[in-house]
């Protein structure tokens, strides 16, 4: 019986660590807050180690079908933990300078990670939903973290209202599915659908509500309106957190619910995802051109990337799922780096979140201009960066299922997208600087950001290892 | 011993690694480092040439490593008679660019030279890739250094020019990517030479051809998608114009020969008329446009488009000739003429842009009207410029004559009117080039600034002199170059004469 708990150990360890961090933080004086920070990082690392130690050989479903440990959960949880580790490194100087380095940010962040891990391993509707809500509640609180900023409060309010609406839709969809199939277990729902067929209006309704709820969470058009406001309104450290790892969690939710649970309804949800994907690609890329605020631009760029991820999923093949997995990991890595750059250029009393803040960066710091160039060209999908292989594999998956027209739309939108990424490169390299302040962040921060940038290039030179992990993760 | 080395990989990675090191070096170190690495690359090209067997059309110096095995994408390299001349050209031009920049570039030298070295490695990669995805990766990667080169060191209107350059070429190439992925699912391989044997229905071929055409027509460039080129060439710094004109344009011509013709021969045949008409428009109309230019660099840029018209004309003439007679007399002449034209134009346009660079460094203007009587103050320079101008106009004895002559003769085999229009370039080319020379070089000294000009120094004489020797050598004795390509061209013509339907 107790062995049932072994695969769940990473979550248990993290939960215990969170409680520990919370308690320790009470006794740590404000000027020695880095103790809390180091503890938080240590708990992430311990969780990561535990994750690899207790991973079972073959996929294992425990806790009465509520929890699964398989290759996908391992890969995506590892990605979530590593990226959150980076996110904490990047947020620290930002928060310290602004007097926001409180235990709450870290504890909420860790709770969010716990929620994401539960989403990655949830194997029935209830555990998936609980994981999602745990993550969402942490995020609402984090956005509102700077309570004296009207912009942040407004963003938090929007996020909360729309997020709650989305959760409601998702829950309603789940309840319909439960009503139709009589089970909460993903596996059981799948078997039921295969056995009884999918030709039922109630099932369709349930599926549609589930898709809408997830589209909200992922930020796919037309359910995207919260994304730019939250990215822009939240403190950069929080936008960074929200932008990076939770997208992986949202993606794994999509995989568990739609692909594993409702796989039999592939033909039905494929059409919906196609519409969402095309709309996201078009709106995301076109509207991003009009942005002058980098955080808003990244928000719209996120929306367009979500379009690409949905393309991979809707292909409905191992190839497609693997490509979407690869895409979402590369996406999180580049987003973390992009927000890291904003933090790098920010200082006390100055938020480097306008595009124009990057003007002349090549003269201030050639190396970090190069890192940002890697990130931008990777997001634009120009080889030899990781983003190119992400796009290549998605396009491949889409062409494989004879949907060449979707691939053509995607590449046309990539050309439009290339423009606003190029514009930032142009500002860094071709424009005169009007900000001479030296970069203030410490060695560790710079090393992490450099490693992040180099990883984007290295994954471009050698994508094979990550790609085969992604393929293994989705080969059921 | 040297033949066992992975020569092609070295040719690609030595300049790229050298470029990365140069980026990190200081001002003075960067110059020396860049020169060493570019000369090392040139040195590596010598055994490639020496070890190349001209008797076979097979790929040589093959390298093969699994790169993304899950996708069946390989790091596969090889050269044949079509790619070898272009690789040699790349390795030859880059050291000259480095030398020419020695004192003229003052702003961020290490980045400038590093970008050119990285660019060199990537371009050699384009010409030696045998895997379609690898080809695409190199193809697109050339955009990044060039984007920065034009944007950072370019002229007044550089930002407009460089963004236009990037988006135009990016636009062209992404459709090629879709076509390559589509081809993969038809054939199960990304190996370019395996794709040559893949049967395809006419409808598929047409769409694939159009996707390829978009990529290559923008790159080479053909009328009417040429408009990025005058802007990019004009605004780029001297080295950027040189590399753009001498090598990146050739990627388009190479693409036609490596991808379009052999992979979709039936569609190429069906649309050969269209390409030939567009080529003739480029030759004649763009030649007239060049006549009207007031900016020297713009004039040379338009002249490049016109000359590239010969490349596409010579390439697609093959189909007219095949239709006329099964033994395809003259087909080989046309195709080889196209390749010779690529190499020759690489040398001549590079030389002309270096010449403009020499003038621009002294006078900081590109307007023809600001010059006049340069020969009085810069006799050595004027001599060399006249040599290159003659070559550009296609004077016999220079390399410019050989390629054009071969293509024109081939087009006489095909159709009198095509030949007549193509031959117009002999008049137009002479007109715009010599008229430019007359206004810039000859006559009385036009103003005090021209009177104050100093003749070229030893470094400049070296760069232009080497190019002049190459232009004359190729013009007087083109046989070694033509010999390299015989077997490969024959095989390509045999291949396209068989329908894939």
Short account of what is shown:
Chain A has about 475 residues and is mainly alpha-helical. Chain A has 20 helices and two strands. Chain A has one domain (about 1-475).
Task: Quickly count the helices of chain B.
Answer: 21
Protein structure class of chain A: mainly alpha
Shape of chain B: globular
- Model regions low in confidence, pLDDT < 50 over at least 5 residues of chain B: none
Return the domain count of chain A.
1
Helix percent of chain A reads: over 70%
Rg over C-alpha atoms of chain A, rounded to the nearest angstrom: 21 Å
Mean pLDDT of chain A: 90
Instruction: Report the principal-axis shape of chain A.
Output: globular
> How many domains of chain B?
1
Task: Quickly give the structural class of chain B.
Answer: mainly alpha
Task: Describe the structure in your own words.
The complex is a heterodimer of chains A (476) and B (501). Chain A has 476 residues and is mostly helical. Helices cover 76% and strands 1% of the residues of chain A. Chain A has one domain (2-473). Chain A has 20 helices and two strands. In chain A, strands 1-2 form a two-stranded antiparallel ribbon. In chain A, a hairpin with a 4-residue loop joins strand 1 and strand 2. The two termini of chain A are 26 Å apart. Chain B is mainly alpha-helical and 501 residues long. Chain B has one domain (2-496). In chain B, 75% of the residues lie in helices and 3% in strands. Chain B is built from 21 helices and two strands. Chain B has helices spanning 7-24, 27-50, 83-100, 109-128, 132-141, 143-153, 158-187, 192-196, 202-219, 228-235, 238-263, 265-291, 296-324, 331-363, 374-377, 379-393, 399-414, 416-440, 448-451, 458-476, 479-496; strands at 60-68, 73-79. Chain B has a two-stranded antiparallel sheet. In chain B, helix 7 (158-187) packs antiparallel against helix 9, helix 14 (331-363) packs antiparallel against helix 17 and helix 17 runs parallel beside helix 20. Chain B is globular. Chains A and B meet through helix 16, helix 17, helix 18 and helix 20 of A and strand 1, helix 5, helix 6 and helix 7 of B.
